[in-house]
Structure formats: structure tokens, C-alpha cells
Amino acid sequence: MVIMGIHSNGTSSSNGLPQRSVYLDHAATTSVLPEVLEAMLPYFTEKYGNPSSVHAWGRAAHQGLEGARRQVASVLGCRPREVVFTSGGTESDNFAVKGVAWAYRRGLFEGKQPSEGPGHIVISAIEHHAILHSAEELEKHGFEVTTLPVDKYGRVNPDDVGRAMRRDTALVSIMYANNEIGTIQPIEEIAAIAHAGGALFHTDAVQAGGSLGLNVERLGADLLSLSGHKFHGPKGVGVLYIRSNSPILPQQHGGSQESRRRASTENVPGIVGLGAALVRAHQQLQSEAEYVRGLRDRLIEGITERIPAVQLMGHAELRLPNNVNFCIEGVEGETMLLKLDMRGIGASSGAACASGSTEPSHVLRALGVPRELAQGSLRLTVGIDNSIEDIDYALDVLEGCVSELRAGANSMVSGVA
Ligand code: PLP
């Protein structure tokens, strides 16, 4: 049982000043909840058999594995055998993109022949690197990729998907919700367009997994990626939903686990944890989303009112209930993160440090955010273990940090030490 707002965060007193410890990086990862850990523990110590073994130990592990498969299927509204367990979101994305492209090349698509073209996939410019880099890899093998632009809120225009479709389009892969700016895509519409063109539709639902509906019939998804650690399950375990009879080739070869679709002994404790965490999240979906949305809005309103010259990134309404992303003029994101960390706040920025210079993320670039503004990007992602007091503390600290950084920048400009 989770009591919202009282978990990983707390108050400590170093250097005499009261300081809270506030984790605001739930898009990066989340804690494993006690009941999830409890469900996992027997599979490390008692039911440790290999689920492919025929003996009692193997059967006990197999029961855990198949129980988790049924749990995931119940949330996705699919058949258990359409659920394939993987090592995480990255593997699921690689499997979907490469597996479908190579199936096209092998002539496994009904109504499409490899002679009609080299094989084509459609993605958006703001996909996670697991999709972007998989697509780049396919290009090295002669596949062609259309990367769709997004509007200033990060939305894909379904008409652009329609215009991109070709005879040899095997796959359209558009994420359900973005990991940096939280924008939610018009998935159902895009799926229908992909299907009309004879292509499969994949969605990376890694960020949406714990807070948005995942019914694959409603979404129109033929393939859908999830990752356990984004919804209070363990790391290193994920799901690829594969609609029955979809043309897709395995990307990992070896044993015949997961009905010959993904070789390797299953991570049974992790899979049991993922199943328990997903069911728990979806039983509480409405109430937790409402709670988290309240914290998010308090943070957005507080930042907008208290800190001048800030811009909210992403869509005002069509966004994940836990995502806050601002570009703050006149501050450097990475420096701000360090300052926040010193005061007990765990946050993230949409910029990556490469060889000494801070490069704005591909997501902010795709939104058309000017480079200088993008340098001041800050992502705060709230969770069920945050409280209102955490948010108010974060606002106080953030206001102070921004003032200090701006004062420092001004004094450097005017030559004052
Ligand atoms: N896709 C999205 C949208 C993500 O946010 C992430 C992780 O942050 C991934 C894929 C990769 O997931 P994993 O960390 O399980 O490999």
C-alpha cells in the first residue's frame, strides 16, 4: 500500500540549516515500491529455478513468469502470448524497429514485396535515442528513414505521417509521450494512418507506462515498448507487446525462450516485479495521476509566478501528469543542476555536456528553441512519493538559485568580481 507523499524524500540537517531531500527526477527512474520488492524476493531465494526447467524449481519460476505475463496482458488488453519480456525500454525499441524492418526485407509482409523499395520507416525527430540510433543503424543497411518534424509544443502532425507513407513503408514508430517535455502524441490517429498504408505501428510507451491508458486496441498499436523502472518496478526489465501474426524477426539469437522471439533465460524476479508494479500503477491510475498533476501544476504556477523570464516547454494540457520543463533565460542548466543538488534537489536538464560545451537536446532543437535559451533547460518530474512541502521547498530553492546565477552572470558582464 502506498501512501502518497511520504516515501523517498525527507528532511535532514547538515551545516545547521534545515535541508530537505527532494527527488524530482521520476522520468529518469523511480524507486521500487515495498510491495513490488516483496513480490520479487521469493524469486531470488526460493523460486530461483530456470523457468525452462521441467523440475519443481523450474515450474515454480515458470508460474511466476506466466503470472506476470498475464498481469501485463490484463493492463494492455491483449493475449498473454503477445507479451515478450526484454531487458528494458532500449531493447524493446531496438527489437521493434530493427525486427520489423528486417522482416520486410525478408519478404514477410503480406501485400508488400521487397522489390517495391529498400524498406522505409517513419519516426519523429523527438524520439528517444533508442529509436533514433536504431533507425540510423538501419540506414547503414540501405533502409530509408523519414524523420518527421514536430510543432513548437512537440506534437507530430498526423497529416505529415500520411504524406510520408510509401509502398515500402514497413513501420511507423511514434512515442506515446516524450521523456523530456512530456508532450502526448495523437497515437490513435497516427496508428490508423500507418495501417491504411499497410505498415505496422509501434509506440514507445516507456514514459507513459505508469500514468496513461495502455489498451493496445484503443491505441491501435501493433507493437508497444515498456520499461519496469519508470513505474516503480525494477531496472533492466521491459516489455515489447507484439500483436499476433505481426511480421517481426528476433534480434537476439540463442535459446527458444519467449516463444522463440527473444533468447536468454528470463529475468524472473525482475519480470515478477514489473508485472506487480504495472498492475499496481494501473489500479491507482486515476487517483495517482490526479495527485501528481496537482503537484506538477503547483510547480508550474510557482515557477511562472516567482521567476521572471521563463518559458514552459511542451504542451500546456497534452502533457504527462508528472512533467515540468522550463527554459530559464540567463542561466546555464548544468550549473543550475549542481546548485540544486547541493541543496538536496534531484533534477535534470535537457542539455548534454559534450567536450566542454553544453549541447541543447535534440528535443529542444526540434521545437525550434534558440540555442541560448535551450542552455537554461530544467526538467522536474514529480512522483507519488513527493509531497506539497517538497514542491514548496523546491520552489524556494529554485528561486534562490536562479537569482544567484543571474546575479553572478550580471556581475561578470559588468566586470564586478
Ligand atoms: N524510451 C524512452 C521514452 C525513455 O524515456 C527511455 C528511458 O529513459 C527509454 C526508451 C529507455 O528505457 P530503458 O532505460 O529501460 O532502456
Task: Please describe what this structure looks like.
The structure is a single chain. With 417 residues, the chain is of the alpha/beta class. The model has no long low-confidence stretch (mean pLDDT 94). The strands form four sheets. The chain has a seven-stranded mixed sheet, sandwiched between helices. Helix 4 packs parallel to helix 5 and helix 11 packs parallel to helix 15. It starts with 9 loop residues before the first strand and ends with a helix. Helix 5 links the parallel strand 4 and strand 5. Helices cover 41% and strands 17% of the residues. Bound molecules: pyridoxal-5'-phosphate. The site of pyridoxal-5'-phosphate (PLP) has 13 residues, from helix 4. Pyridoxal-5'-phosphate binds next to helix 4.
SSE inventory with pairings:
Blueprint: E1 10-14, E2 17-23, H1 34-40, H2 42-45, H3 56-76, E3 83-86, H4 89-105, E4 120-124, H5 129-139, E5 144-148, H6 158-164, E6 169-173, H7 187-196, E7 200-204, H8 216-219, E8 223-227, E9 238-242, H9 257-260, H10 268-283, H11 285-306, E10 310-312, E11 323-328, H12 333-342, E12 345-346, E13 351-354, E14 357-360, H13 362-367, H14 371-374, E15 377-381, H15 388-413
Parallel strand pairs: 2-12, 4-5, 4-6, 6-7, 7-8
Antiparallel strand pairs: 1-2, 3-9, 8-9, 10-11, 11-15, 13-14
Helix pairs in contact: 1-10, 3-10, 4-5, 11-15, 12-15
The site of pyridoxal-5'-phosphate (PLP) has 13 residues, from helix 4.
